[in-house]
Design a protein that fits this description.
- InterPro entries: START-like_dom_sf.
- By secondary structure, the protein is an alpha+beta fold.
- The protein is built from three helices and eight strands.
- The chain has helices spanning 14-22, 27-30, 106-125; strands at 2-4, 8-10, 35-42, 45-50, 56-64, 68-73, 80-90, 93-102.
- Strands 1, 2, 3, 4, 5, 6, 7 and 8 form an eight-stranded antiparallel beta sheet that branches.
- A hairpin with a 3-residue loop joins strand 5 and strand 6.
- The two termini are 28 Å apart.
């Protein structure tokens, strides 16, 4: 299952966004209002929970300076990645688009597609908070 957020323009340099997204503590600023839990477990891993959803652990998987930050589920039960693709528009302006990729059975995919789409859209819309 592949989902993409809308591409959002942020009045920040691509370097600033990359640095902010590379620090897992900053993901708390991006979370939707219905967050029930957010806990940093280490330099590259955090745990979060939204009301009505199971808690998810995300680990920093890969980084490409100023253009890409990849997080992956720390559990094999729900294998997926969340990628932030950053593009430079100018010295003080960038775009960010989030991509969610996961392997799910059709029933699970049907159940989570709506909530995950809304979740990544909210994360993207909150990029200006970084």
């Amino acid at each position: 299952m592949n989902l993409e957020s809308p591409k959002v323009t942020v009045e920040q340099s691509s370097q600033h966004l990359f640095d902010a997204l590379s620090d897992v503590k900053n993901f708390e600023k991006l979370m939707p209002d219905n967050i029930a839990k957010f806990e940093v477990l280490g330099d590259d891993i955090f745990n979060f929970g939204l009301k009505g959803m199971p808690e998810i652990k995300l680990r920093m998987k890969d980084k490409t300076p100023t253009s890409k930050v990849v997080l992956a589920a720390a559990s094999d039960k729900l294998p997926f990645t969340l990628t932030a693709n950053i593009e430079t528009l100018s010295e003080k302006s960038s775009t960010v688009q989030l991509q969610f990729e996961g392997e799910f059975n059709p029933m699970m995919a049907m159940m989570i597609k709506g909530p995950i789409s809304k979740f990544i859209e909210t994360l993207a819309q909150n990029m200006h908070k970084l």
